[in-house]
Every structure is written in C-alpha cells, then in structure tokens.
Specification:
The protein is of the alpha+beta class and 549 residues long. The chain folds into five domains: 64 residues, no CATH class; 71 residues, no CATH class; 99 residues, no CATH class; 101 residues, no CATH class; 113 residues, no CATH class. 33% of the residues lie in helices and 23% in strands. The protein contains 16 helices and 20 strands. The protein has a five-stranded antiparallel sheet with strand order 9-8-5-4-10, with no helix packed on it. The two termini are 57 Å apart. Bound molecules: iron/sulfur cluster. The site of iron/sulfur cluster has 15 residues, from helix 10.
Length: 549
C-alpha cells in the first residue's frame, strides 16, 4: 500500500491530527482532509516520489502520477513534474490563453474556437482566415488589463495558430513580472543562446525565461513554483561558476536560477507568497463560507455543544465514549486548548474586521465568545466548544508569552528532559472558565503529594504515561520569572501571584520530543472536583498579569 492509499484509509480525526505535521505526510493529510470536509484547498504543496510514480499535492489536487523511472530526490521529481505541467499547458486548445504581437505591443486573450479546415470570418470585420490542419485558424477573445486586474473584452480577433504563444491563464490574480525579473529572464535567454545552459537544461527553463523576459503575466500557482524552485536551487550559489569572474561562469545552475527569475524573482515571489500568508481566511469575512464550514464541522466531527453554558451531559458522554476517556476528562478538551484553534492577534484583527459591518463593538463580540479560528474546518469558533477532531497542544497564539494566561514553561533542561512551570494559578480564570482560591488549591496539591502517585499523563489520558514529577512547590510570595519563547530564548518577564503552584517534571523520550516540537507547551491539572458557580473575589488576580517593562 503506497502512502496515498494509507492516507486515503484514515479517518477525519486521524487526518486532522496528521495534517498538523510540517512534512510531506502532513501536507498529503491536509489535502485529503480538505477534500473530505469540502474545505478550501491548502496552500502548501509537496511531491512524494516512489519507483515509477509520484504523489503530487498541488494546486488544490491530490493525485498519483505515473512517471518514468525512479527519482532519488523530490527535487528531481519536482523538476520532472514541472516539465509534465509545461508540456500539458503548451498545447493550445479552446479555452487556452495566448499572446501574440500586435501593433500596440503584446496582446493577450482566450481561445474561443480552433478550425482545422475551411475558413472563418473574424466577427465585426471583413477579414477571413483560412484554416489548415498544420496551421489552424484561431478565434480569440481579447483580454485587457484594467485597474482591478485582467478582464475579458467584447472584441474577438482571429490569428493563425503559428503566430500564437501559450501563456498562463489570465485572472485578477495574475502578476506582472517587475523589470528586474524580466531582465533576469532575458539574461538567461542570452546565456542559453551562448551555450552556457548545459545538457540537462530543460524546455521548461527555457519557456520560463521567455515568459519572464516578455513580461507575460504569471499566475499565483507559478509564483508559488518560482518561490519553491528558487529556494531549492539557491544552495547552488556556493558552487564554482555561480559568480562573475569565477571559472565556468555562468554555470548551468546559475543559468537555470536566472531563467526562473534569479535573486530579483525570489524576492518578488517570496513577497507575494508572504502577502498571501498574511491575508485573512475567507470565513472570517464571509458569513456563507463560515456557516458552510461550521456545518461541515457539525456533521463530520460533532462540533458542539450548541450552548456551552448548559450541562450538555449527553453531548459530553458521547464525546467521552469517542475519545475513550471519562466525561470529566472529555469536558477539558475544548477548542480553547486545541492545537487547531488560532487566537493570534492577526486572526483577531481578521474576525473584528469581518464583524465590523454587523456589530457595534466587534471587539466585545470576540471577547464575549472568546472567538478564534479553527484551522482544521476553517471557520470561526468559540473557545468553550469542541469537536471529535480535537488536537492537544493549543491554542495557537502570538509567540509572546508575556501574559499569565499564556505563560508556559519557565525552565527547560535538554540534558535531563526536565521542565519547570506553573501547574495552576489561584484566583485566575482558567481556559475552562473555572478558578480556585489558594487554600483549596494547596489542600488539593498536598492530597496529591500524599497519594505518592508521581506519574504524569499525556493529555489526561491515564493509559499514556508521559513522565514523572520530581518537585512541586506552592510559592508563598509573588514570583517574577523569565518566560521562554518557542525557540527557548527569554521572551519577557511575568509575575505570578502568591499561592501559584510550580511543578518540575522529567519527561519520557516521546513526550520530550513533543515538547521540542511545541506540541506540549505547559501543564494541565487533572482530577475530580465539585464545581460551583461563584463570583470571583474582587481582589482576585483576574487578568493576573503584571509585566514589568
Ligand atoms: S478548534 Fe475546535 S472545532 Fe476546530 S478542530 Fe479544534 S476542537 Fe475541533
């Protein structure tokens, strides 16, 4: 069974977990999940190769291609696939976009009709074009660039096929290469003509150089491929012949790099890809898309409960059965601590902007619902809800752990697989809307210590041991400590109130790997307790944060 067949055999919940991985398998899982949940196509791309085949996740499609021979690296396979794509696109068909020389410069349009024989009258003119099987007559609808991008016009023109060049589809998302990128393309064409391209140089490289040199529009997909190609081949810059004055300059590697836009092209493509990444997800501003994706989460993964303020016993029992945990443990698995729950300031800005036409105070709406964005099902959700695709380790927040609510480990020791961090902060509302006072907390901790049970479990799952605690301390005074950023560097100081319980844990190998990958970022206290509704005391540390400086 190849990797694609294995991915296709997974459940939505398994795919949701796998799709978080930052590798080819994670990307394949993300594509499969998007197809099953009818979600927008992922932006990541990958190619996984095997003997005689390649699995391609690109342009919103997940497919298995038969290819000749075996590719030792995915770079080789990507280059080969680029060739396949090029030859597929190079054939001019009805519906293809083309360009041709006209009196006003290079004109562009979409092919409406191709005639292999006879003759055709160009609409609105007295011209007739004769068609031949080896040089057909082509009717083309003219496209023009306006302030909001490329648009079709009412004009239809006619040309012989031999005068046309296939170009990428025009759309409002077409990008015109800047002058520096056009110059790189022309430089590559000159070097190719001088014989510097080498035997392995492909028609794709030649076509890309011509496209850029002509200043032809480039689609979003090609921008992505340019960014990927130039990043992959940038490593060749240390080889002899890359720079002017070196033996063998320009090397074939340098010619290929320039054909894809060179350094100017990389800056250009990276900036467009970077801009795209910063764009708001559609569901944050489109109500129909948000509702559709939310409905998918309900149908596929039991997103709920409808009103988290109610007991919803049936719902939690159902989820507990699904996760094979107790209902109490199931209640602790909420969007608010799910690894797919995005509460970064960027997302908050997007949600606020999306609500601003419908709500007087969108910030209040976001705060009241403790809203975030679900990256699995791609909709706005509230922190108190959950679904069966819940993933431990969230939420996703800005990488600035300067607030108590976001404070995680304060010390990590790689050698001993040890972490020290706050276990629980008294008089502070936790992610589940619960809190406790210092005395109750200390009594609970003493009871736990007296039990002699030193085991630490993974995500409240009592079947999976993650390590053992080696020290625990209730701080009698407020304590100001350095907080660690995700890269282990000091990100700032946080002051914990008196009565905060700190815990030191030595982790097993598996859990330590999760900590290093950022999948485990702090402790979560577990246990049985009766809960009552109560007002927080007025002097309680509600926001709990005192950030010096
Ligand atoms: S954020 Fe919520 S809805 Fe989305 S996967 Fe996590 S638990 Fe499910």
């Amino acid at each position: 069974m190849d990797l694609l067949a294995q991915i296709e055999a997974l459940t939505v919940s398994q795919l949701a977990t796998l799709s978080k991985r930052d590798d080819a398998t994670g990307i394949l899982a993300e594509y499969r999940l998007a197809a099953l949940t009818n979600s927008p196509a992922p932006s990541r791309e990958t190619v996984v190769t095997g003997e005689g085949y390649a699995i391609v996740a690109a342009n919103g499609e997940l497919k298995r291609l038969e290819v000749d021979g075996y590719y030792a690296t995915s770079d080789d396979a990507e280059d080969r696939l680029e060739e396949i794509r090029y030859f597929e696109n190079a054939v001019i068909r009805e519906g293809s976009f083309v360009s041709w020389n006209s009196s006003g410069g290079r004109a562009r349009g979409k092919v409406e009709r191709i005639l292999l024989e006879g003759s055709v009258k160009v609409p609105g003119t007295s011209f007739t074009i004769n068609a031949e099987p080896d040089n057909p007559a082509v009717l083309i609808r003219l496209w023009r660039k306006t302030a909001d991008g490329w648009n079709e016009t009412d004009t239809v023109v006619g040309h012989k096929m031999s005068t046309l060049t296939s170009i990428e589809p025009l759309s409002k998302e077409s990008f015109e290469p800047p002058l520096g990128v056009q110059e790189s393309g022309q430089q590559a064409l000159d070097w190719i003509a001088e014989g510097h391209a080498g035997d392995g140089f492909t028609d794709v490289g030649r076509a890309r150089a011509s496209q850029l040199a002509r200043g032809d529009n480039v689609s979003r997909e090609t921008i992505g491929r340019m960014a990927s190609f130039l990043a992959r081949h940038e490593g060749n810059s240390s080889a002899e012949g890359w720079n002017y004055g070196e033996d063998g300059f320009p090397s074939p590697g340098r010619v290929a790099y320039e054909a894809w836009g060179g350094a100017e092209g990389k800056t250009w493509a990276d900036s467009i890809m970077g801009r795209e990444k910063a764009a708001c997800p559609i569901a944050t501003y489109s109500v129909p898309v948000n509702l559709k994706n939310r409905q998918t989460a309900i149908e596929v993964a039991d997103y709920g409960p409808l009103n988290p303020g109610l007991p919803n016993d049936e719902y939690w029992e159902h989820l507990a059965t699904y996760f094979d945990v107790t209902p109490v443990e199931a209640r602790s698995t909420v969007c608010g601590n799910c690894a797919a729950f995005d509460q970064t300031s960027h997302i908050e800005d997007c949600i606020v902007e999306g609500l601003s036409g419908d709500s007087e105070d969108p910030y209040d709406v976001v705060e009241q619902g403790d809203l975030g964005y679900c990256r699995v099902f791609k909709f706005k959700c509230a922190s108190a809800r959950t679904c069966s695709a819940w993933i431990a380790g969230g939420p996703i927040v800005d990488d600035e752990p300067l607030e108590l609510a976001k404070a995680k480990f304060v010390r990590k020791s790689e050698d001993r697989q040890f972490t020290l961090g706050p276990l629980y902060v008294p008089d502070f509302m936790d992610a589940h809307g619960e809190w406790t006072d210092p005395d109750t907390l200390q009594a609970a901790v003493w009871g736990w210590v007296n039990s002699g049970d030193r085991r630490i479990f993974l995500q409240h799952d009592r079947d999976v041991e993650a390590g053992s605690w080696v020290e625990v301390m209730t701080m009698p005074q407020p304590w100001t400590v350095d907080m660690l950023g995700s890269d282990g560097s000091v990100a700032g100081e946080v002051t914990y109130p008196a009565g905060t319980v700190f815990l030191g844990v030595i982790w097993n190998d598996e859990s330590w790997a999760k900590i290093k990958r950022g999948e485990l970022r702090g402790y979560s206290i577990g246990g049985m307790a009766g809960s009552v509704y109560a007002e927080m005391p007025e002097d309680a540390v509600r926001e709990g944060v005192e950030v010096p400086g």
